[in-house]
Design brief:
Layout lengths: L1 E4 L3 E4 H4 L7 E6 L2 E6 H7 L1 H4 L2 H4 L3 E4 L10 E3 L9 H6 L5 H15 L9 H16 L5 E4 L8 E3 L5 E5 L2 H11 L6 H9 L11 H6 L14 E5 L16 H12 L4 E5 L9 H5 L4
């Protein structure tokens, strides 16, 4: 675990990126002390990761802590006492009434005319493609893990190539789904062979120097939407890629890139997509 002090809440790429997903970092500020795991940071602050400030200047700061950061506040400057994290976690600070209101909002969004309606046949075609992809042992699998290695690839002990991405491939898939575009396995193979399947949100100098796959998301980015997953796609383990069971990688890939496990929200309310009772209402 690393700690640093700053005059405002900030994220330092050079300290955060080397961490494993479940490693923690603490930021002490005049507004309080915040504790994140790297996985928390990538999940809740996914918009920060692709910014020029974070990628090139290696630091992103917030003048005031945003609301979504407050769930990670472990101590406040004005507090007269400290509670253990265990006690804080055990206490229901939300309450059932608020939780049910969030559930109602989830239902409203699920039925909203502004919620993009995806053609069932398109979803079925993508589902079949992904199962065919997994079954073809010559096809690389793509994972969202150790995203400081985005675009790099590894050979798993079983002999299969594993490519590291962030949420880029999932966004690329859903962008195509919204356009009713479906691919054959041969077409996917060609995109991979030509390094034309987007693997990174932004091709930084570091990525270009170290990665095998450097195609950026470009016009496939969902500019108006935040992409969310219904079933979590995190591994929740510090196990290295090479030591993961190939069956676990296959299951992760299936959840990560299958549009049946995705939905979108307007960016204005995108962080509702992190709340379980809201997510539950988005299941098809």
């Amino acid at each position: 675990m690393i700690e640093y002090t700053s005059s405002r809440l900030c994220f330092k790429a050079d300290l955060i990126e080397p961490l494993k997903d479940n490693d923690s970092f603490i930021v002490r500020t005049p507004n309080g002390t915040f504790k994140f795991t790297k996985a928390d940071f990538y999940r809740v602050f996914s918009n920060v990761i692709g910014t020029k400030s974070y990628q090139e200047n290696r630091i992103y700061s917030c003048k005031y802590p945003p609301k979504r950061a407050m769930q990670f506040l472990i101590s406040s400057q004005s507090s007269t006492f400290k509670q253990s994290e265990k006690c804080m976690a055990a206490k229901d600070l939300v309450g059932e009434e608020i939780r049910m209101k969030i559930k109602e909002i989830g239902t409203l969004w699920h039925n909203s005319p502004n919620n993009p309606q995806i053609d069932v046949e398109v979803l079925e075609n993508w589902n079949n493609l992904i199962e065919e992809w997994i079954a073809d042992k010559d096809m690389p699998l793509i994972i969202r893990k150790e995203t400081n290695k985005r675009g790099q690839s590894f050979i798993h002990p079983c002999g299969r190539e594993i490519i590291v991405s962030d949420n880029t491939v999932a966004i690329w898939v859903y962008s195509n789904v919204l356009e009713r575009a479906v691919f054959t396995l041969f077409q996917i193979k060609e995109l991979l062979n030509q390094k034309e399947l987007p693997m990174v949100f932004m091709a930084t100098k570091e990525i270009k120097a170290n990665a095998k796959y450097t195609k950026p998301l470009g016009h496939y980015a969902l500019s108006d939407w935040k992409l969310c997953h219904i079933q979590p796609v995190g591994f929740n383990t510090n196990t290295s890629i090479e030591d993961l069971e190939i069956s676990d990688i296959e299951d992760h890939f299936r959840k990560y890139v299958n549009p049946n496990n995705m939905f979108v929200l307007p960016k204005e309310i995108g962080y509702l997509g992190e709340i379980d009772v809201f997510i539950e209402e988005q299941k098809r």
